């Protein structure tokens, strides 16, 4: 007996009559986290972790029909015990654990195994069925420690400030931007953020998440205010008129894709920093092995090659799932 099936609306648990991260409107959606490829508009009711509440309201509407749980809390629907466990991806990200008739399934959503000091650290959950992303499911993806990456970012910022240049760093507005803010050396200069990041920060703060103070980029600030500053902006603002106020500047981009040769040049950034909110190759393998799952379902990413590896090298029953995940967070 499987607790999960893939339908045209998304992953479905028929025993509980609930969907996990559905992409079409349904009666009840359990959301692993608040990125828009996992928490979509149009569901009648939502269930998510407490720390996702304010961001989901910001993105999907203040009148959202939303119920929240803490990590480890249990909710029973039609005899199915539902609980949430940390995924380590962004604040409020959760793995969804379903238990029914002696069987346990876990839908992990997106996850990373390094503790970033902001999100609740990833917690392996033993189960019979495990649904895993594999965005970076190739051996070429091996992350350096977070501390090393932030040493690189701070050194780049300091070098720019010393040379009279401003630093514009592109990072996704939910999760990665806040992770960067928490790890910058603010002795170097002021930190400013784009409005999309500012609004996300305020939502997270309303949820009780502590973030360091930053300043909002506004139209009335003089150009001199940004001298030697680091400005964090979403990737969509790259090469737009919004950037003119920071001249002279250098640009950097934070993404796991920076591990691929040529990615920085294709995105027209001066520097690339390999910083991802997803697990790398070894992280995926360690997370999957820790579940002791009998069957592994693979979603967005290198599903075919990673699935072959799990079958041939690890002896696991691995299946690909064609989903609509992986569209938003720049990884």
Automatic annotation (TrEMBL):
RNA-binding is among the record's keywords: no
EC number(s) from the headed UniProt entry: 3.1.-.-
Molecular functions per Gene Ontology: exonuclease activity; ligase activity
Keywords: Exonuclease, Hydrolase, Ligase, Nuclease
InterPro entries named in the record: MBL (IPR050698), RibonucZ/Hydroxyglut_hydro (IPR036866), Xnuc_lig_assoc (IPR026360)
Cell inner membrane found in the keyword field: no
Stretch forming the signal peptide: none
Entry superkingdom: Bacteria
Name of the protein: Ligase-associated DNA damage response exonuclease
The species this protein was found in: Algoriphagus namhaensis
Taxonomic lineage from the root: Bacteria, Pseudomonadati, Bacteroidota, Cytophagia, Cytophagales
